[in-house]
């Protein structure tokens, strides 16, 4: 469903991602872990069309994201094309990025009305369903500044879900939260994951969370995927040689990287 082929990314002279191949299958949950600066965020920002790849192609549902093929040649896609394909993808960021001057409800209905073109009534219906799902139906009229960090992040998740994406990208969504709020946000994500149909990419430092939610865990280092497997293979039995190698290679003795 999503296919990265020979993806490279440089910022100036600095090569961040090299020749990367990577697939995500429908409804698959993939956790990406790895040291700071290894390129995890850059990898998913390219799928959200926030960073343009320097090399390679990305396909979503068999359709090129950043390119079009004209007479057998790849050319850059126009904004209209990017906009359409990006409609299949939702993203939740480390900083919740809510509009501070809008209520919770309005934060959740702006994009579906203006981007998807649905009616205000339908957008409100959808928003209420999703705010209920994240446990915040009683906060419809609150402003972001009246909410805790965990609640704001749950609104950001609801806002992304209202768009009904096929793939959700979570970029270290608990990193900016006070420790006591991490659990409530992870619980909401686990619940959404358990519903099954949506594919998810989760960039996270939370090892337990990666193990519990992901079908597949990727470990990135130096702009490459250096280890990949099912959580049971990588975290399962500490006596298992592969688990031992994984943990010792990356010095993963504790809960966090
Ligand atoms: N817009 C940019 N311009 C220049 N360099 C950038 C830009 N965005 C990212 N980088 C650099 O690319 C490298 C990879 O960054 P990225 O955020 O993808 O890593 P990461 O694995 O997500 O790290 P972290 O866990 O700290 O968020 C870093 O060295 C970063 O400084």
Automatic annotation (TrEMBL):
Membrane topology value: Peripheral membrane protein
Subcellular location, record wording: Cell membrane
Source superkingdom: Bacteria
Main localization category: membrane
SUPFAM superfamilies according to UniProt: P-loop containing nucleoside triphosphate hydrolases
PROSITE patterns recorded: ABC_TRANSPORTER_1, ABC_TRANSPORTER_2
Swiss-Prot/TrEMBL keywords: Amino-acid transport, ATP-binding, Cell membrane, Membrane, Nucleotide-binding, Transport
Pfam families named in the record: ABC_tran (PF00005)
Domain called ABC transporter: residue spans: 2-247
GO molecular function annotation: ATP binding
UniProt keyword annotation of Oxidoreductase present: no
UniProt xrefs under InterPro entries: AAA+_ATPase (IPR003593), ABC_ATPase_HisP-typ (IPR030679), ABC_transporter-like_ATP-bd (IPR003439), ABC_transporter-like_CS (IPR017871), Ectoine_EhuA (IPR014343), MetN_ABC_transporter-like (IPR050086), P-loop_NTPase (IPR027417)
Entry similarity comment: Belongs to the ABC transporter superfamily.
PANTHER family membership: AMINO ACID IMPORT ATP-BINDING PROTEIN, GLUTAMATE_ASPARTATE IMPORT ATP-BINDING PROTEIN GLTL
NCBIfam families: ectoine_ehuA
Designated name of the protein: Ectoine/hydroxyectoine ABC transporter ATP-binding protein EhuA
Organism of provenance: Fodinisporobacter ferrooxydans
């Amino acid at each position: 469903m999503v296919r990265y082929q020979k993806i490279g990314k440089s910022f100036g002279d600095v090569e961040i991602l090299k020749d990367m191949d990577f697939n995500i299958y429908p409804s698959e949950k993939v956790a990406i872990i790895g040291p700071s600066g290894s390129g995890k965020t850059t990898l998913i920002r390219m799928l959200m069309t926030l960073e343009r790849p320097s090399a390679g192609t990305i396909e979503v549902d068999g359709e090129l994201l950043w390119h079009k093929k004209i007479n057998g040649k790849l050319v850059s896609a126009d904004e209209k094309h990017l906009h359409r394909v990006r409609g299949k993808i939702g993203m939740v960021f480390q900083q919740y990025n809510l509009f501070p001057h809008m209520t919770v409800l309005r934060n959740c209905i702006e994009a579906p009305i203006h981007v998807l073109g649905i009616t205000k009534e339908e957008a409100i219906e959808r928003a209420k369903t999703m705010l209920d799902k994240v446990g915040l139906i009683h906060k419809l009229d609150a402003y972001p500044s009246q909410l805790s960090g965990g609640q704001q992040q749950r609104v950001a998740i609801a806002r992304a879900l209202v768009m009904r994406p096929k793939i959700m990208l979570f970029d270290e969504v608990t990193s900016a939260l006070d420790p006591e709020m991490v659990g409530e946000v992870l619980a909401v994500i686990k619940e959404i994951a358990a519903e099954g149909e949506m594919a998810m990419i989760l960039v996270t430092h939370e090892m337990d969370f990666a193990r519990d939610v992901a079908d597949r865990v990727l470990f990135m280092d130096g702009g490459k995927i250096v280890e990949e497997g099912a959580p049971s293979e990588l975290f399962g039995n500490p006596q298992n040689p592969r688990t031992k190698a994984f943990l010792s290679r990356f010095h993963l003795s504790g809960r966090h990287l």
